[in-house]
Amino acid sequence: MEPIQLIVPCIVFAACIIPLYFAINIKTESQRILSSFLFASLLAYGIHSLLESFEVINYGIFAKLCFVVSGFGLMVAYSFLQLKNSHVLVGGIFGIAMIASFGVWMAGELLEATFFVTEEQQQEIIDLISSGAMAGFGIFIIVRFLWLQKFVFIESRM
Amino acid sequence: MIIIQSKRLKTHIMSALSDSSMEKILQSTSFSDRSASDIIRTQGLPHSTTYRKINELIKCGLLVLYRSEIASGKKIAYYKSTLRSITVSYQGIADTKIEAEPNQDALERISNRFYDLKD
Fold this sequence. Notes:
heterodimer; A: 158 residues; mainly alpha; 5 helices; B: 119 residues; alpha+beta; 3-stranded antiparallel β-sheet
């Protein structure tokens, strides 16, 4: 097992805490739903990635599709909220980052699951690209939250 | 209470408090959300000044569009101050200290901006 296979899920699990924190503490229903979706999708990716790298379970197409569907659910929920809120499909940088990273992961998983890719080397490249995209998204979530927390008044408490 | 450390925010707070219209807007929205027409009526401010000052306060982060509702075909925006109370203490040689009590909506705003949803 390569270190990146362990580092990426760890980053994603760390990023999971932020939507969980939002889902628990925020009163606005739409944001709670979105946070829950984001939490579920990140958790699903993290678990999936760990199980796959430790080779605990030999994944079938169905399991992979389940994870892909959770990521897709997040995108649909986000797009629906954006349309309702501001009449646009993607509201800003968060939407772009999320759709790009989950899109790369979903495309990679679908390619692997549908046996278009048969060579092990090709599979490794796809895995690496997917992991890189998701790790980038995890880091983006953490950095964005910390930056916003500083920006929106919560500077230092007495 | 929080201690405001950002110099930019300190400047915004002090200039808002020194402007009587802005101060009145902040006062009327510090505990509950108010529409612009509510503010105009209760504080006796001119229409155009109120809307201009509201936009300035939103830009510097001291006021947020809290909610909006449609009443008789018109969209009415309700605003709320981001800070409930502010204490400014001038300490001579030392930096001026500003302490503020935020309205408990800070996390909601963080989440709104986090997801790029409109405030």
